[in-house]
Structures are given as structure tokens and as C-alpha cells.
Amino acid sequence: MQKNNLAIILSGGTGTRFDISKPKQFYKLNKKTIIETTVEKFVNSNFFNCIIVVSHKDFFNFTKKLFNNTKIKVIVGGENRQKSVFNGLNAAKSFNPKYVLIHDAVRPFFSINLLKRVLKNLKGEISVIPSINVYDSVRYFKNKKYSNVLRENLKLIQTPQGFCFNSIYEAHKKNKESVHTDDSMILYELKNKIKLIKGEKINFKITTKEDYNIGKLIVKENNNMSDIRVGTGFDVHKFKKGKQLKLFGINIPFDKSLEGHSDADVGFHSIVDAILGGLCLGDIGNHFPPTDNKWKNKQSIFFMKHAKKLLKNENFKINNLDVTLICENPKVSQYQKMFIKSVAEALDIDCSKINIKGTTTEKLGFLGREEGIACQVSVTLSKND
Length: 385
What we know:
Distance between the termini: 39 Å
CATH topology of the largest domain: Spore Coat Polysaccharide Biosynthesis Protein SpsA, Chain A
């Protein structure tokens, strides 16, 4: 992608219909303002030599503090959108760009692919304008007059709009007194030539509080999907003399017991290790060192409650637990439902998210010789809503 491209991001509006105290571009989506989200996407595309942010004079200093990048230049806009664009074009002239993209700061959900398509199509055109078709029924309604409007040839026009710099600069210079809501119409009135390309439905303009709430839902969903964790746990305890053993918090009658510093619940220990792994918080030995006598004979339900608390503190939830108990005896199947219920209660999750199964090593190794029990766990976590 050639680099003599420049972008102008319009942030000169005060948005009093949205909030009289603060323009909408300074509202946050997750941890970043709308304008930061928009500008950073342009920067990260690496398609532009320079990005000019056009700010309202009252918010110039605030806007400038948001950006610490040599590629970004903040300037003061005019009294309306058209004059703000002209100010941006005047500032852009010194960079001698071939192509310029003009974009509304409050359209943060465009894709990098859309930027790429606009620039690619500009190689043979003087303007490239994203648009989407109108699929809803359209009506004209004024003074109780209600009439149909044919939608077949209607288009919803979006930004970023791409132009050959010299063409759009010339068009703006010749249309200083007229008022237009976008730059494509200014160019069309001078050159009578516009190329429309397919826009993106998600590239909507945040104008109302309802739009902003939709934007927050989009960001929230994207964050949840991108922050899925996987953790694994593995533990082994050997047998000793005894009359019962504990698995997943359940006392099982058996001719042996399990040996360990705490209650040797190999099932609970593996689950705790898997959760700690998914949270990137070490292992059970870091949190409950076996060298510390205060954990001696401690019931492993305590460790499970600790893991549950960490999940809450880190704002994660369990999507599913898959557990494999490896031993010749005892047979797991007869206790499976009890195990699942015990784990669900300990972690306060639904039983449907837990799978516990048993397998053997076909008499091979220490497990096949019935010298102990091993447990293997995988867990998937995601951000809590």
C-alpha cells in the first residue's frame, strides 16, 4: 500500500443533542474514548503518513493530550463540518498527499479492510464513497402527510470517504459558502463523478445515547470473545493403608486411602490447578505450600473456595470443566453424578458445565499396578458479563 496517503478525522462537533456537558467523541468504549478508538485504528493500519484530527476549539487542549504520536496532528476546526474539513485540507497541503480519507470520529466500528478497499479503488478514481442499501420501507411524513418513497435507488452514505487530494481541495475552495453534510456531494457538484463501493452495516455513526449503548454492547462482546482462557491441571496421589478415600469432596469406601499433605483429594487439587492456570496465577503449591504446616490435613474444599474467589476477583467465569480420573479402582461411573454435584456446589456453577469421566492405563505403569490415582483437568474461562 503506497504511503503518500493522509487521513482527516473530524472531531469538531459539540454534540449537544447527545450531551450538553461533553461531546460524544469523548465518551468511552471500554477503556478508550470513541475518538481514540477511531484514530488508533487508522494508525494501526499503517496506510497513512499523517493523520490530522480536527478538534473544536473548546476541546483542542483536551484532544491534543489524548494523542502522543508523531503521525497525529491536532488542529482547530471551523464553525461547521464543512469548514472543519477545509481547515483539515489546508493543514494537509504541506504534506503533499496524493490521496486523502475523510472520516467522522464517531464512526469507530469500520474495519481496516474498508480502509484498504477505499484506497485500492482510488487508484483509478477521484473519489470512493462507502454506501449501504436501504432495505426498510421509507416514508415521507410531514404535516400529517404520509407517503411512500421508493427505496430501490436510495443509498446510506458513510465515511471514510476517499479522494484524490487535489480534486477534493479544489472542490472545497469553490464551495466555501454552500453547506453540505458530507464531502462526496461537494466533489460531485464540481466533477459530477462519484464511485460508490459497498460499506459496512456495523460502521454506524454514534449520534444518540441509544447508538452509544449499542456500541458498548459491541465492544463488550468483542472483549468477551477475545479473552477466552484455557487452563490445565494434573495431580497424582499414591495409595496408603486405609478404609476410605476422598475424591471431589466425596468420601468413598475403599480398601486404601490417598496420601498427601492435605486431605489428598486428587480431583479437587487438579481442578484448582486448572483454574489457577487459566487465570495465570501459578499453581496450588504457590498458594498453599506443602512445606507450611497450616495446610496439613486441610480439607480441599477450602482450596476450591479460594479458586472460586480468584475467579470472581479476576472477573472470569467457567465455561466448562472436563475431568479425567485415571485409576484401575475405584470405578468412577457409580459416583459420577455425586462427583459432578459436589464440584458444581463448590464452584457455584451449573452441573451441565462439568464432565467427569474415568479411564485406566490397561494395567500399565504405577497406576496400572494400583499404586495411586491421577487426575487430569482442562477448563475454559471467559470474562464475566
